[in-house]
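Exam revision sheet. Question 4 asks you to relate a sequence to its structure. Input first:
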Amino acid sequence: MPEWKGIVGKGFRADEFDEYVKTVKFDEWKPSFIVLHNTAIPTFADWHKHPGEERMRALERYYRDDNHWSAGPHLFVADDLIWVFTPLNVPGVHSPSWNRIAWGVELVGDYDKEPMSQEVRDNAIAALTSLHWIIGIDPRQIRLHREDTKTTHKHCPGLNMVKDDVINLVVAALTERPPLSVAAPISA
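Answer key, structure tokens:
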């Protein structure tokens, strides 16, 4: 079994998450893009049946003990909080072709069956904006899990996820942010 990388296991409001990413050191690993996923299980309707910290520990057991992976996705984005799972400065495990080069961001819900709530969408755009801004990657490179030719998850993150809408919202949000000295400016 590969060595487990550990989890952060903390939930942040959007403004807190933005401050958190500013504290992360990207000395040894930086992703090239972000891959969007949906949890499917749990559905959005089931997510709050357990406290977030308990959910993070259960996910840790699932990825580490059941799947025998070295990590999981980097974020779980819910309606109330953005949960950091795998540390943002190490490769995660979430998409066969892209684990070593991309952040994995799970959006809580089954977006083949459920519409995305405004709150999940808002937190997702805030999280994606913060991530793109902190290391200066282009949001037009966002990929959906189903675009990985090696994945068996051919619907993830669900048919109700419109990639161009997400990209356009992140690009618009980035144009409102002052450039970070390490981040490349994004033009609309």
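Marking note for examiners. The helical segments are 14-21, 44-47, 52-66, 118-135, 163-175.
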